[in-house]
Amino acid sequence: MLRGGLRFPGFALGAWAFFQACPPAAAQGTEPQPIRVELHWEDLSEPACLTPATLEAAVDALLSRPAFGKTPADAVIYGQLTRNADGTRTARIELRRPDGTSLGIRELRSAEPGCRSLRDGVPIALSLMIDTRRKEVLLQLPKPAPEPQPAPPAARGPKPTPPAPLPIPVPAPALAWRQRLSVSGAVERGLLPGTVFATRIGVDWLHASGWGALVQAGLAAPHTAGYEAGGVTAWAWELGAGGSLRVAEGHRLRADLAGLVETGEMLSRGSDFQIEETARSWMLEGLAGARGSVAIGGGWVAGLAGWCGVPIVRQRVTYRQLGQREVLTRSSPLFARAELFVGLTAW
């Protein structure tokens, strides 16, 4: 039991020496903080594969902390994702100092069409690049040492040629236009007599900005509609051209608005009453609609389209009764069409 502090001068001296040699952690400085990184990411592939928001969320999840910010940064990452001619994708990542000095470039390329491998690989690569401490960055990026004085030239012999700098790989530019061939089955009502089933083929030219052009051709199969005066069998062919505008696009999904002007010919023949042999009539109509598609791999897509149209030239079927011409049926002021299509994107 201690009875007085003055009786143990050796203990007091030892305690003073311990705290002088081992100060508290706060006196030694706080633990190095994670580096501050600013991200600049562009996804130029079509369809988009890895958006900036998706990439930031994946890196945050791997590091269990917010990885990026807009505050004064210790380093800046510039990244770009492009689509190659064979359908694969290439990610190019460059790490720079805030003053713009390049610290290194990495490229990741998917082994097959699609973007699953890059959606997993790019966040891992970024996490490894930025999972360090600010103190380590200062150690890794010291101020350059002064250049040594050049050696005196040799008395004899040719002057050595300096090595050529290594070329920086430049990613292939994204394709501005893509071509898509499609085949569809359609059902239509309101333009021709009865309910019409048709087969259609089309070509779309899609621009990276979202605009596009389309051409379609269709053949309505012969079908018979019955009326009080008798039945009528009708069939038709059509050609159309128009444009489209992309309104939404995700990982595999795409939505477009489209407009179309069509022309063609309807042929009709009656039964149980006399129509003037096989009647022919010229067709002209305008349509507006929406299309949605989903990528199913290998450049193939599948989708649905819904159209609403106005017959600029209204169709009608007439027959003669008691020497007078009577109207059997005519097209509606509005008609509707639904399509189920599959397509192949070509370059």
Largest beta sheet, briefly?
A: 8 strands, antiparallel, barrel
Overall shape: elongated
SSE sequence, one letter per element: HHEHEEEHHEEEEEEEEEE
What percentage of residues falls in helices of 4 or more residues? Answer: 10-25%
Overall pLDDT confidence: 78
Overall SS class? mainly beta
User: How many whole angstroms does the radius of gyration measure?
Assistant: 37 Å
What is the topology, as strand order, of the major beta sheet? 5-6-7-8-9-10-11-14
Low-pLDDT residue spans: 1-29, 135-142
| Termini separation | 92 Å
Q: In DSSP terms, counting alpha (H) and pi (I) runs of 4 or more, how many helices?
A: 5
- Roughly what fraction of the amino acids lie in strands? over 45%
Number of strands: 14
Q: What's the gist of this structure?
A:
This protein is mainly beta and 347 residues long.
Topology record:
Elements: H1 9-21, H2 25-28, E1 37-43, H3 52-63, E2 75-83, E3 89-96, E4 102-109, H4 116-130, H5 134-140, E5 177-189, E6 195-207, E7 211-227, E8 230-249, E9 253-271, E10 279-297, E11 300-313, E12 316-321, E13 324-330, E14 335-346
Parallel strand pairs: 1-2
Antiparallel strand pairs: 2-3, 3-4, 5-6, 5-14, 6-7, 7-8, 8-9, 9-10, 10-11, 11-14, 12-13
Helix pairs in contact: 3-4
